[in-house]
Prior knowledge:
- The chain has helices at residues 9-23, 26-45, 57-66, 107-112, 140-158, and strands at 86-89, 94-97, 114-116, 122-124.
- By secondary structure, it is mainly alpha-helical.
- The protein has five helices and four strands, in the order αααββαββα.
- The two termini are 39 Å apart.
- The mean pLDDT is 88.
- Helices cover 44% and strands 9% of the residues.
Amino acid sequence: xxxxFLNDEELRKRLQLVASRLQNPLELTSTLExxxxxxTLQNFHANGRPAWAGxxxxxxxxxxxxxxxxxxxxxxxxxxLKASIQGDHDRxxxxxxxxxxxxxxxxxxxxxxxxxxxxxxxKIPARPYLPIDENGFLQPEAExxxxxxxxxxxxxxxxx
Length: 160
């Protein structure tokens, strides 16, 4: 009887290595956490991507009367929203969050927009600083960065 014998020992070893690396992808989730934090900080640096709505004439007048020079949207306080950005990761996920201390009060209203102030009479436009859109999808810059990191990770685990 004739036939072809395939030695799949190397393939089996490689697949076992890949499977073991996929069991605990902390290296990937740790890197993705840093990417999400970086993308969030880049949103602050760029005053939004796409650009955030400007300050209202009322806010600008209040600033003028108080002698405050606008330093950029959402960047007035050194201990404010930008300073509260932090990330986290575990074996299965990577996250970015904001809003601790004083900034906790206004983190959501700036991300999603809505009515605020006394009696909820002031409309605050959405100024999404987290790298997601209103539907929960990554903004294009963040999607590209996450894709590059994930692609590099896959390449690394398949080709050690």
